[in-house]
Amino acid sequence: MEKRTLKVRTAIISDVHLGTHDCKAREVNHFLKYTRCDKLILNGDIIDGWRLKQSSYWPKSHTRFIRLVLKKLEKRNTEVIYLRGNHDDVLSKFLPMAFENLHLVEDHVHEAANGKRYLVLHGDVFDTVTKNFVFLAYLGDWGYRALMRLNRLYNRWRTWRGKDYYSLSKAVKARVKRAVSHVSHFEEHISELAKSRDCTGVMCGHIHTAADRMMGDIHYLNSGDWVESLTAIVEHFDGRFELIDFAAFRQDYPLEDENTESADNQDTLDLADGPSASPAA
């Protein structure tokens, strides 16, 4: 009997950062495994090229992410849109590229089921440091990684004390006025770009801050990340968008223990049959 899955028209994820210790590969793999979609948008920083230049860290769970995406392409006939981010900016030399249902692009216009147009881009084009001060961007990345290492140690202690996971980096960003201001300006700029491209909405990532709200007459969506927030955006078959939080997702689709995951390495869920169908099918 086929396992129950979330069936949607479109799924959008960003900032997975494969190749880093802080990537929540197990969780994002679980989300992909239990989600059926006609279109999968990978909105930048899926593979962290910056870290791979310095480290060979690449566990099996990161390879499994690639396999899950490829099997959606091959067995589910899913259209996959991969957008360049700043951490996988090596792709910018080769864009655009297309291989049947796989498209690697700088930006993309998504037409929702209700006919509305959404501009899709990673969002780093509005980050002055990332674009114009590469050294400072790398320095900031080093500081962020140091904070995440501290976060791992802190949460090991919390686990030992029987406490839930707590993100130090999210707490720091929420309390630093400059960071809050940066997020605000980023959202304003990207919304203005959507208007200039004759779109009624925009989807992005980059700032690791998930969102689903109106900014004036622009529908602003940010898919967050799979390092801290563990969030995604999905479009239902009626054109309605929803912000998915993994903590809630795992309540409906329980996370398997690691032994079960290893035994189920054939990913039979994604190999079962043809393309996803609407709930009415």
Keywords:
single chain, alpha/beta, Purple Acid Phosphatase, chain A, domain 2, five-stranded mixed sheet, about 20% strand, disordered C terminus
Q: How does this structure look, described?
A:
- This protein is α/β, with parallel strands linked by helices and 281 residues long.
- The chain has one domain: Purple Acid Phosphatase, chain A, domain 2, CATH 3.60.21.10.
- It contains ten helices and twelve strands.
- The protein has helices at 25-33, 49-52, 60-75, 128-132, 134-160, 168-175, 177-196, 246-252, 258-263, 268-271; strands spanning 6-13, 35-43, 79-83, 97-99, 102-105, 108-111, 117-120, 201-204, 211-215, 218-222, 231-235, 241-245.
- It has a seven-stranded mixed sheet. It has a five-stranded mixed sheet with strand order 6-7-8-10-9, with helices on one face.
- Strand 11 and strand 12 (241-245) form a beta hairpin.
- Helix 1 runs parallel beside helix 3.
- The longest helix has 27 residues, at 134-160.
- The radius of gyration is 18 Å and the shape is globular.
- Residues 128-137 and 267-281 have low confidence and may be disordered.
